[in-house]
Specification:
Strand order of the largest sheet: 2-8-7-6-5
CATH topology of the largest domain: Aspartate Aminotransferase, domain 2
Radius of gyration: 22 Å
Largest sheet: 5 strands, mixed
Number of domains: 2
Number of helices: 16
Strand content: 5-15%
Shape: globular
Order of helices and strands: HEHHEHEHEHEHEHHEEHHHEHHEEHEHEE
CATH superfamily of the largest domain: Type I PLP-dependent aspartate aminotransferase-like (Major domain)
Distance between the termini: 66 Å
Structural class: alpha/beta
């Protein structure tokens, strides 16, 4: 018998253009961090070496997307690029009607204003910051119905994005179906660590909601990544393409909000997709007030063209395998170094468990915020907090919300960094872990009214 030769894996693309980045000194970073109030969102990008703040609008577009930019039809009404975008959404996701917006939160705002009444309850598989705020501003209350394993960073459950169906049914019986305009379902749950929902669970949820006449609205920001995890982990899907699984996921829901700056790899853009013609008619009217005409929303024609192409590229198996593979490469490096992270490794980033990393810092001293600052100070790597700062305050008591998950997110942009960059990140995290007892807690010195994690300022205790 012949010897089997194992071939190395490599990214399914070539680099055609580069952007120089510079390594700053620790003294420079210390000054920059202090001026930013220990909030990585307030750092200047010029002061950052490897930027893992977010995967939103930070991915690299393909040559075909850039070519599409040159084909932008900037007609105020009836841009041909809108119809290309509409066709792509109908083809790859299956939704009937499309309302373009400047980004995902524009779609969240319009949807919430149309569907939510004062006193409504919106169940969902863990909150997301902007989604929850728009629901609350419309008069609703978000209620978490995700499985308990999602709140345990050590749990190895393969589908931590799943809904606890009993929690949902109890909620329906308590408040009545008329008080629940829709169930809010994210494919890959960001705040849980980029964790997927299974097709089996979504099918069961669809059956339950149909019994009560409740809609499912899909936060489809990273739907292709969720589809890939189903392909890899769920029985019966190994031989289906990511494109096929993506469309099947979407067809189990009634509509969606999309921040196209993630999966679809554009720098700006989003949309509301809906099957109900009456909701579509209202949304098409509202978008004119808040975003722009219904055939461009908040987007230029060139951006709609790049988005239409990005949707097609996002569901290609080779692309998504490489995208999620790079995340898992970094996750495995950190696990080998003994770093406490959310398990299993998700799809768009690595989430460090700041409670375990910094057990000497109480949660009211913002350990995840402090850890993100320490990482930047060590190497110029920018990450972001996903803990008590992001969770905000209880709208009734005014006290901090204290989530079980106190995390630092290392978010990987698509098609931007190499494995060598991931090695630098892993080495830096390991370095600060070895001297973690030197990291101090923080106190908040400035707090904005909404979404405080973007603009809050801190100082060391």
């Amino acid at each position: 018998m012949g010897t089997t030769i194992k071939h190395s894996w490599a990214e399914p693309f070539k680099i055609k253009m580069v952007e120089p980045v510079f390594i700053t000194t620790e003294e420079h970073r210390r000054k920059a961090l202090k001026e930013a109030g220990f909030n990585t969102f307030l750092l200047h990008s010029d002061d950052v070496y490897i930027d893992l703040l977010t995967d939103s609008g930070t991915s690299a577009m393909s040559d075909r997307q850039w070519a599409g930019i040159m084909l932008g039809d900037e007609a105020y009404a009836g841009s041909k690029n809108f119809y290309h975008l509409e066709e792509a959404i109908q083809t790859y996701y299956g939704y009937k009607h499309v309302v373009p917006t400047h980004q995902g939160r524009g779609a969240e705002h319009i949807l919430s204003q149309i569907m939510i009444k004062q006193g409504d309850i919106i169940p969902g598989n863990m909150y997301f910051t902007t989604t929850k705020l728009h629901q609350e501003l419309a008069g609703g209350t978000f209620v978490d119905i995700i499985i308990d394993e999602a709140h345990d960073p050590g749990s190895s459950h393969p589908f931590k994005g799943n809904v606890n169906l009993q929690k949902l049914e109890d909620l329906i019986k308590k408040h009545g179906a008329a008080k629940i305009p829709y169930v809010s379902i994210a494919t890959t749950v960001n705040m849980a660590g980029g964790q997927p929902i299974s097709m089996e669970n979504l099918k069961a949820l669809r059956a339950l909601t149909q019994t009560y006449g409740i809609k499912i609205i899909h936060d489809m920001t990273r739907v292709a990544e969720n589809a890939f995890m189903i392909q890899q982990k769920e029985e019966g899907y190994q031989h289906k393409t990511v494109a096929e699984i993506t469309k099947e996921l979407c067809q189990l829901t009634d509509g969606a909000t999309m921040s196209a700056k993630k999966d679809a790899m554009v720098n700006i853009g989003g949309f509301l997709a809906i099957n109900d013609p009456d909701i579509y008619d209202e949304a098409r009217n509202m978008v004119v007030i808040y975003e722009g005409l219904h055939t461009y929303g908040g987007m230029a024609g060139r951006d709609m063209e790049a988005l239409a192409i990005g949707i097609k590229e996002s569901v290609q198996d080779d692309h998504i395998r490489a995208r999620v593979g790079q995340v898992h490469y970094l996750g495995n490096k950190l696990l080998e170094a003994g770093i406490p992270i959310v398990n299993p490794v998700g799809t768009h980033g690595i989430f460090i468990d700041a409670k375990q990393f910094l057990p000497h810092i109480p949660q009211d001293q913002f350990p995840a915020q402090a850890l993100a600052g320490a990482l930047y100070l060590d190497s110029g790597v920018r990450a972001m907090e996903r803990g008590v700062v992001s969770a905000g305050r209880n709208k009734t008591t005014g006290q901090h919300n204290y989530p079980k998950l106190e995390l630092v997110r290392l978010t990987i942009p698509r098609r931007v960094y190499t494995q060598a960059h991931m090695d630098v990140v892993a080495e830096s995290v390991a370095c600060i872990y070895s001297k973690r007892n030197q990291i101090k807690g923080l106190t908040m010195t400035y707090e904005p009214k909404y979404l405080r994690f973007f603009q809050a300022r801190f100082k060391e205790v």
